[in-house]
């Protein structure tokens, strides 16, 4: 698997993985140093919607438990974590950190966790908010969950166009 593709970090049983493969809500996560943006898909895995922003605590375990609570509350069957690759597609320090955190989230949440290229999602989120007239502090409060929705929608679209074995669907 190349760095620009997604990485699966399954931590649930084989039965749970099969059941989760194509159904149920997906939680998209934009991990930041100060905030964690969350987005949620519909159960049909068609549409991503900004959900909420969690303020980072100084305790990563506490942050992961807060995300696991969202997984439980909303019946999430898959998590997708943004992978901040370098612009050239390489895995740098930030991406390695996200991969480590994604693995930890898989253990805590008990659902499969995938990573997905998030390059330029925050730029896209700022553009969407600017077009909607959201500025200043309001934009800063919203941008992380909108970035998570941009990331999640891209992942959903990729999944919808992939074959059962993960290969691109025929035209």
Give an account of the 3D structure.
With 171 residues, the protein is an alpha/beta fold. The chain has 5 helices and 6 strands; from the N terminus they run E-H-E-E-E-H-E-H-E-H-H. The chain has helices at residues 14-20, 60-74, 93-109, 121-131, 136-160; strands at residues 7-9, 25-31, 35-41, 48-55, 76-83, 113-117. Strands 1-6-5-2-3-4 form a 6-stranded mixed sheet, with helices on both faces. The radius of gyration is 15 Å and the shape is globular. Residues 1-6 and 9-20 have low confidence and may be disordered.
Instruction: Supply the helix-strand structural class.
Output: alpha/beta
Mind describing the biggest β-sheet?
6 strands, mixed
**Spatial ordering of strands, largest sheet:** 1-6-5-2-3-4
Structure annotation, total helices:
5
Tell me, rounded to a whole number, the average pLDDT. Answer: 82
The low-confidence parts are 1-6, 9-20
Succession of helices and strands: EHEEEHEHEHH
- Supply Rg: 15 Å
How does the overall form come out from the CA principal axes?
globular
Strand content: 15-25%
Count of strand segments: 6
Helix content: 40-55%
The span between the termini is 23 Å
Please summarize what this structure is:
With about 170 residues, the protein is an alpha/beta fold. It has helices at about 15-20, 60-75, 95-110, 120-130, 135-160; strands at about 5-10, 25-30, 35-40, 50-55, 75-85, 115.
Q: What are the salient characteristics of this protein?
A:
single chain; 6 strands; alpha/beta; globular; 171 residues; 44% helix; six-stranded mixed β-sheet; 5 helices; disordered N terminus
